[in-house]
Amino acid sequence: MLLKIRNLKKSYKISKDNEFIALKGIDVDFSSGELVSIIGESGSGKSTLMNLIGALDLDYTGEISVDDVDIKTMNSHQIDNYRKDKIGFVFQSFNLIPHYTVLENVTISCILAGIDKKERDERAKAILKKVGLENHLSKKPNQLSGGQMQRVAIARALINDPEILLADEPTGALDSETSEQILALIKSIADEGKLVIMVTHSQSVAAASDRVVRIADGLIVEDISKKEVQPEQWNNAKTQGHSKGKLSFFNSLKMAFKNMKEKKTRNLLVSFGSSIGIMSVVLMLSLGNGITNYMNNMMQEFVNPLVVEVTKPTESSQSSSSLAPDPSTFLNEKEVFTQSEISELSDIANVESVEYGFSTTSMNDNKIVYNDEEQVVTTIATVSQAMTNSSISSGTMPSGNEILIDEGTNEKYAESLVGKVITVEFKLNDTLITKELTVSGTYHSSNGSIANLSSAYVDYDLLTKLAQDNDISLEPNTIYLVAASEDDAQSVKQAVTDLGYSGSQSETIANIFNDMISTVTLVLAAVSGISLFVSAIMILVVLYISVVERTKEIGVLRSLGARKKDIRRIFTGEAFLIGLLTALIGVTSAFILQFVINTVVAQIIGYDVVAMTVQYIIIGVVMSVVVSTIAGLYPASRAAKVDPVIALKRD
Ligand SMILES: Nc1ncnc2c1ncn2[C@@H]1O[C@H](COP(=O)(O)OP(=O)(O)OP(=O)(O)O)[C@@H](O)[C@H]1O
């Protein structure tokens, strides 16, 4: 006995304490090779019985055994395999997947069973030939007639060589001539040894079957056999073998891709919308990077890379947190170096020579006067090897009784001061010194202008002499360590930091700015991240709609043996692909914008301010895919939970 049903009862819950008993105790046996028609009034319980036999509905009492195995004893994995291998479903409304070709519709249960492409195509073509559709392989269902569609559905049901074919009104939607052809096909399937159970309202279909079982009010009221079937007549050994495989990850992505393609415009629009967030994040990070590069470039342009400037950390800069020291720190008088500190610094490996420097900073006392017009020069400092000639914009470096002023200050005067004698006033250890000096030249003021501070430079010897003249002992408060190579300079810089000294003021200022830029960049990127949240919701909504639209398709796939996991994978796969598409659009737009912004800005400052890196692209892609996939989890789990029986009832 292939199928044994004992005392099968099924009730539907209508409300909390109200249920409807659809099957009231069915006892029946079916054998291989039988063509059975189940007939009965509408609502008598025929479809309910079919769903139970097909294990689409597991909520019943009693026994349904196939090959002496009770469905109730199977775990969910075995149930999925049972649906995939033992049962083939044919529906009244064909239930083909509209965006799949004939061949794809037929091979779908092989794909779900993890059968490789070559074998499944061979099987499908053989069966499609048998049902007379070998010339329609690449057509979509809407290009077929009703009879052809039902043939495809029958081919699909047969491809895994099931033992039982369940057909719910297979001819219900067909005209009488086509019905006869389909019936003949079904008959031939039973003749080959399969158990075919059909629900029908048609007298002629019932008349053509071997056995007619009438159901009324949830009970079998009549069971007429016209043909005696020998239980042992059929060798039920499967010709194709049981499939133990499952839907591969690649195939689930392929199915997801098909789904996605079907709703091209919608998915493209969502991806476009979502890509704005990804684009902004990538662009913001790249902009921050570009500006930082620009700043560093500016800093380094006028600085001799072989020279390491050393100052002593002031108290306030020591105590302030590392992130953003107060720029006013630099207005404090710098501490001078003792002889032992100087020798400690000279002893650092790779230091070739040591140069002394001094700077004095004051917001009010340091100034230059020319033609009675005075300008505050916040810092008077000594020139050193740290300054390169490229920093000079006009004239020369100062020597003897000369002073180098910054371009900005020079421009404040009606005529250029280069070569002119000016009066310089500045405070040296609390003593105000006034001295007439010749302006040797001007330098690019990019460094100082960062914090709107200006500096003027004199020779260290001049400062020493002025100190002596005024009985002031001048100790250096800046030490320049000269290294032989840039690499050496880096190791010297590290050693200086390790000893607890600070670097140059401009470097420290640059670091503060770099930190500020990083913080601002991160904040901006985070703000752009909010749009990612919006895209996540968009993707969630779109996929949710997709689940609702595909409910029937989900039911069909489940009836063909798709596991809940497979359904979840297909929808998560779709979310993943939307994420990839979003990333593609986002990164491409960021690239285009980078080009546009850089072209425009380069004309103004001569530098590419947007500097995209592979790292940012990876961040963008990963973010997009992760956000999208996470957004897809909920719709995917809803899809997995769809009840196949209810789903199949959908129109
Ligand atoms: N989900 C459900 N909830 C409550 N009652 C249900 C549900 N599904 C079916 N029923 C009831 O169970 C009974 C049997 O339904 P079933 O669909 O099996 O009938 P049927 O014989 O196939 O009818 P038809 O020939 O019209 O398709 C009907 O009275 C129906 O109202």
- Provide mean pLDDT, rounded: 85
Helix content: 40-55%
CATH topology of the largest domain: the name is: Rossmann fold
Q: How would a crystallographer describe the biggest sheet?
A: 6 strands, mixed
How does the helix and strand content classify structurally? alpha/beta
- What is the count of DSSP helices, taking H or I runs of 4+ residues? 20
Number of structurally distinct domains: 3
Number of strands: 22
CATH superfamily of the largest domain: P-loop containing nucleotide triphosphate hydrolases
Report Rg: 43 Å
What can you see in these coordinates?
The protein is of the alpha/beta class and 651 residues long. Helix content is 47%, strand content 21%. The protein is built from 20 helices and 22 strands. The strands form 5 sheets. The chain has a 6-stranded mixed β-sheet with strand order 6-7-8-3-9-10. Strands 14, 15, 17, 18, 19 and 20 form a 6-stranded mixed β-sheet that branches. The protein has a 4-stranded antiparallel β-sheet with strand order 2-1-4-5, with helices on one face. 44% of the residues are buried. Adenosine-5'-triphosphate binds next to strand 1, strand 2 and helix 1. GO terms for molecular function: ATP binding; ATP hydrolysis activity; transmembrane transporter activity. Residues 3-242 form the ABC transporter domain.
